[in-house]
Write a structure and sequence with these properties.
The chain is an alpha/beta fold. The chain has two domains: about 100 residues, Rossmann fold (3-Layer(aba) Sandwich); about 210 residues, Dihydrodipicolinate Reductase, domain 2. It is built from ten helices and 14 strands. The strands form three sheets. The chain has a nine-stranded mixed sheet. Strands 1-2-3 form a three-stranded parallel sheet, with helices on both faces. The radius of gyration is 22 Å and the shape is globular.
């Protein structure tokens, strides 16, 4: 019989509800306790999902859950020192620490891409670029109007970079093979020309352009925006020395040498001429799944039940935290920030 993993949930907001719905459908999981600073919301959630225990205080919840494996929602931490303490503690006590900032690794496309990378099909992967532009998608304004905390730096830690660029930073580094990041350069902007509705205060960025210089001559670029006057510009590409990848839908692009008759060269083409051979990674098209990436919850539970490291380790989340911290410093000080 498969081991049942007892789960404690801290927080019962929108994304916690997504985790709980997934856990309901995961045979190896049983949610045994829940806590929220809003006790009535915790009690309503416990009733909805048949959770037997509602902790009245965070201390009560931590006393029940101390010494357990942890899946942390993003942001993993608001500064690298805190993230480092979290990782060192988990390693010292021999518990797995995972982070939901890596949820974009799940799904058919990213998994197939990583298999191809690990098998050497792409050669040496040296460049990954992600672009994610929302036309009008500022939380607390255009979407989730009840969640103005997204726009408060003290509570959210940042704007678009903490909201969803954190996912693509992780994905870019993962597809690069998780190299050490040597330096970060970033530019950020708050779109003050279109302020939030209802007089809501905003002191976080709407737009970020981030460049990561990594060991081994590798580079990663992340562009993200809540408020962009653009459409159909989103994309994720991977460049390798043997082949490249383009996502959504996943395509492999390979150079194929062709013979060009001398009379067709017209002084422009040389003898070494190639065309791009594009092939589907899957025999069918498929849309990205909706929601907040429920696979991360399911796979975390399965990994814990099997006694193995989840695919979203805290060490990787620490590197993402270091990149984000350096990006804020780079944008603030208008310089390239080197990482030790």
């Amino acid at each position: 019989m498969a081991e049942i993993v007892g789960i404690g949930i801290i927080g019962t907001g929108t994304i916690a509800q997504s985790h709980l719905r997934t856990l309901q459908q995961t045979p190896q999981a049983k949610v045994v306790a829940v806590y929220d600073v809003l006790t009535d919301r915790a009690e309503a959630t416990a009733k909805q999902f048949a959770i037997p225990n509602v902790a009245k205080t965070l201390e009560e919840m931590l006393a029940r859950e101390a010494g357990k494996h942890v899946l942390c929602e993003k942001p993993f931490a608001l500064d690298p020192a805190e993230a480092e303490r979290m990782v060192r503690t988990s390693e010292r006590v021999g518990r797995f620490l995972a982070c939901a900032s890596a949820r974009n690794r799940y799904g058919m496309g990213p998994n197939r891409a990583r298999q191809m990378l690990d098998a050497g099909e792409l050669g040496d992967v040296y460049h990954v670029r992600s672009t994610s532009f929302r036309f009008r998608g500022r939380p607390g304004h255009h979407i989730f109007p009840q969640s103005a905390w997204f726009l408060d730096r003290q509570r959210a830690g940042g704007g678009v970079i903490m909201d969803f660029a954190v996912y693509t930073i992780d994905l870019v580094l993962w597809l690069l093979g998780n190299p050490k990041v040597n330096s970060v350069s970033a530019q950020m902007r708050q779109i003050v020309e279109e302020p939030p509705a209802g007089g809501v205060k905003q002191d976080v960025e709407d737009h970020v352009a981030l460049f990561m210089q990594c060991e081994g001559g590798k580079a990663g670029i992340v562009e993200a925006s809540w408020v962009a006057n653009m459409d159909d510009a989103d994309g994720l590409i991977v460049l390798g020395t043997k082949a490249g990848l383009r996502f959504d839908p996943l395509r492999k692009v390979t150079p194929v040498r062709v013979e060009v008759p001398p009379e067709r060269r017209m002084g422009v083409l040389g003898e070494d001429t190639y065309v791009a051979h594009v092939e589907k990674a899957f025999p069918f098209e498929f849309p990205q799944p909706p929601g907040f990436g429920p696979d991360i919850t399911k796979h975390f539970v399965e990994a814990i039940a099997q006694g193995r490291q989840p695919m979203t380790p805290g060490r990787d989340a620490l590197e993402v935290t270091r990149v984000i911290d350096a990006a804020f410093r780079s944008a603030r000080e208008q310089r390239v920030v080197a990482l030790a």
